[in-house]
Amino acid sequence: MTAIDMPVAGSRPKPRMHPLAVRVMHWTNAIAMVVMIGSGWKIYNDEVIFGFLHFPQEIVLGIWAQHALQWHFFGMWILMLNGLVYLAYGLISGRFRRLLWPIRPLEVVREALAALTFRLKHADLTHYNAVQKVLYVGVMAVIIVQVITGLAIWKPVQFSGLVSLFGGFQGARLAHFIGMALIVGFMVVHVALALLVPKTILAMLTGGPRVDPAPPTTPPAH
After folding, report:
1. Among 14, 116, 124, 139, which has the highest number of CB atoms less than 10 A from its own CB?
2. CA dihedral angle for residue 119, residue 125, residue 131, residue 132, rounded to 10 degrees
3. How many H-runs (helices) and E-runs (strands) does the chain carry?
4. Which segment of 10-19, 89-98, 164-173 scores lowest on mean pLDDT?
5. What would the pLDDT profile of 59-113 be if each residue is shown by its tens digit?
6. d(CA 126, CA 203)
7. Distance between CA 210 and CA 17 in Å, rounded?
8. Are 79 and 29 in contact (CB under 8 A)?
């Protein structure tokens, strides 16, 4: 622990960048996503969209399609409940505003090029770079769409209004597949970036460096 992190006598220690609740929700989401992706691949194999694409049995979850569907529902409820708590926490605590805003397009391009050439620097863990911001905001938006398309596929009669948003049942299936591909892409990039800066993985396990608590919101002076 550095002198900066040492608490002053009689004062409360600064909070970690990733509180325990955030770490638990993060890893719960990660496990739920792996369950949903693996079982979703098995369900897809039962009625493919693209004739040339079948996922090998070694990487799917479920012995047969109905078994995979049970796994898919299991992961879905965990992801939905945990995701709602995560969104509420991020909005109410101000965590999203502090870490994910603002997003500047020029910074995104510059730092994406740096990541592709393995020159991405991330010395300060308490601030997300532009690439991270876009990835996190983007994947949250995709997951919301995945929930909508998933409901449309699951209950096409009861949620006929949702089905019509995607031009029919097959359109909803295609949108759901594209969303899955985007989430898999996010996970690949997310893991690759974490491997480029290994201390970010450690931070999500231990809590990371201590940060100044968010200042309380005060009403404007009249």
Report:
1. 139
2. 140
3. 8, 0
4. 10-19
5. 999 888 899 999 999 999 999 899 999 999 999 988 888 888 888 888 888 878 8
6. 10
7. 6
8. yes
Estimate the share of the chain in helix, then strand, then coil, as percent rounded to the nearest 5: 65, 0, 35
Neighbours of 68 (CB within 10 A): 22
Residue whose token pair is 């929700």: 25
CA 152 vs CA 149, 177, 199, 212, 220: distances in Å:
5, 13, 40, 44, 45
DSSP states of 72-112 as a string?
HHHHHHHHHHHHHHHHHHHHHHSHHHHHH----HHHHHHHH
Query: What are the chain's domains?
Result: 20-206 (1.20.950.20)
Contacts for 37 with CB less than 8 Å, ≥ 6 apart = 180, 183, 184
Euclidean distance between CA atoms 64 and 92, whole angstroms = 42
Tell me the longest C-alpha to C-alpha distance in the chain: 67
The two tokens of residue 206 are 């231990």
Burial (CB count <10 Å: 0-12, 13-18, 19+), residue 69: middle
